[in-house]
Amino acid sequence: MTEIDDVDHQLLRMLREDGRRTFSEMAPEVGLSVAAVKRRVDRLRQSGVITGFTVQVDHSKLGWSIEAFVELTYTGTTPVGEIVRTAYKTAEVQAVFTIAGAPDSLVHVRVRDIGHLQHVIDGLRRTGNVTGTKTLMILGSWTRN
Amino acid sequence: MTEIDDVDHQLLRMLREDGRRTFSEMAPEVGLSVAAVKRRVDRLRQSGVITGFTVQVDHSKLGWSIEAFVELTYTGTTPVGEIVRTAYKTAEVQAVFTIAGAPDSLVHVRVRDIGHLQHVIDGLRRTGNVTGTKTLMILGSWTRN
DNA sequence: TCTGAAAGCACCGCCCT
DNA sequence: AGGGCGGTGCTTTCAGA
After folding, report:
1. What is the tens place of the pLDDT at every residue in B78-124?
2. What's the rounded Cα separation, in Å, for the pair B97 and B108?
């Protein structure tokens, strides 16, 4: 576990709000020089606390307006790696969570319409040794910054 | 729904991999000038396809090593806004999904240890008119870039 | 570890095609 | 819509405290 001080937390919070915020903009806010801020952010990347930067996309604006979680249960012999591998080959799968207990995994999917969802679920059913699925249709979502 | 061409998709893919990639770095890859790339990204922000940029953090490196989904069910009279509001006031809540059917919502939480998880779940139980919870402990996860 | 300065680059607005 | 230029600001490195 990496030790982080208050200034680092401030920097992380600012970068969570806007990952393209400049060092020269953040420097006066944390009361350090631009070079010091850069050194800290570089260090956070080096130590693996910051794993990267990314863009946030509104997929509904691109026509992918339906989201769902699919709970999957497998036969007892199915290895975890297999579960993830079969799921992420599917382009519509956004994330895969392996779970302790029942269900065995939770798959976040994003699709264009209901027919498309049906197709993706059918695909998930066919892969691995799926013994059951339950689909949770997402009506709305909120994510912390 | 916004119309997007292949170059825009390329730009989005590159920015998903690294949200701080520069226009001058992307321009030769898509075969356009720097100015043209900037105009396209500006247009994607303007049209709402790009909602922002953010940093990706490895929370386990900071000691928040346990993740779980909590399925919540409410009394029939609980409005959706109430569900989300009570959940996101809790700092440990990363995301809230409102669901069609049962359960009524799915809450993604991140905590330091099991005792902490217990505390957060107790808090969720107390808020609103929760009639039941089910906790899915996350063993591993994979997210598409 | 921080600051400050200098050199290199990217960004951004403007004009032109 | 894309290309190119010039001014401005940011980034990056290095010396010094």
Report:
1. 888 887 888 888 999 999 999 998 999 999 999 999 999 999 999 99
2. 8
- What are the structural domains of chain A? 6-46 (1.10.10.10), 59-137 (3.30.70.920)
Contact A61 B48 (CB under 8 A): yes
Nearest to B85 by CA among B127, B39, B31, B143: B127
Collapsed DSSP state (helix, strand, coil) of residue A20: coil
Among candidates A16, A98, A101 on the partner chain, residue whose Cβ is nearest the Cβ of B140:
A98
A69/B94 CB distance under 8 A = no
| A61 touches A112 (CB < 8 A) | no
Residue A21's nearest nucleotide, by CA–C1', is D10
Q: What is the pTM of this model?
A: 0.93
Nearest to B35 by CA among B24, B45, B25: B24
Cα–Cα separations (whole angstroms), residue B2 to A6, B17, B40, B49: 41, 22, 13, 8
